[in-house]
Amino acid sequence: MSNSHLFMKTGFPRAALNNGIGRYVCQLQRVTIKFCKSNGSSRGVRDFLEHDLVNFAKENPGIVVYVKPRRHRTPALSAEYLNGEKQLLFCRNYTREEVNKWLGLLRSQVRDTSAIRLRKMWHTDNPSIQGPWTPWTFRDPAQNLVEFPDPKLFKMETEQQTATEKLLEIFKAQQEAERKRANETG
């Protein structure tokens, strides 16, 4: 087992500056698409550039797109975010659809979340001063001194009448009413 995860940056899951509470601001600032004009591993990236790049640029006017041809190199997507972080994604032998999906993911992210080790799966800016809730939070403290087995604790607590009890009560009331009528008439 490796302990290499201990050297990763730690943090909490969070939204950048409460993004989405007011107006949404796309955190992706610029994308650089690097590819080779002749290499076969860049075919999907070249197809994306020919067919989908113009539509991507029209749909995302806040993202600057750079196209950088490089000879005999692996195709890559380089993303730069508003907080200054950079992410490099190698696209060797990707199809046109895969490149489009990865660009969509880079656009929707705040930063490179794969390079961060989460301390907890949740985080709040305003923690509770009352402490966490447990099943014993609102229990009667007298239960701490009870010796087990105690029949009072094992009895089911029902504040409302069950349907069966209600039907039995209506049935008994009907029988009483029939007896009274029978005694009055007879």
Largest sheet: 4 strands, mixed
Beta-strand portion reads: 15-25%
**Alpha plus pi helix count:** 5
Shape: elongated
Distance separating the two termini: 92 Å
Question: How many beta-strand segments?
Answer: 6
Q: Please, what is the average pLDDT?
A: 86
Structural class assignment = alpha/beta
Q: What percent of residues adopt helix (DSSP H or I)?
A: 25-40%
Major sheet strand order: 3-2-4-5
Radius of gyration: 34 Å
Poorly predicted sequence stretches spanning 5 or more consecutive residues:
none
Describe the secondary structure blueprint for this structure.
Blueprint: E1 9-11, E2 28-35, H1 43-51, H2 53-59, E3 64-69, E4 76-81, E5 86-90, H3 96-108, E6 116-118, H4 151-154, H5 163-185
Describe this structure in words.
This protein is of the alpha/beta class. The protein is built from five helices and six strands, in the order ββααβββαβαα. The strands form two sheets. The chain has a four-stranded mixed sheet, covered by helices on one side. Strands 1-6 form a two-stranded parallel sheet. The model has no long low-confidence stretch (mean pLDDT about 85).
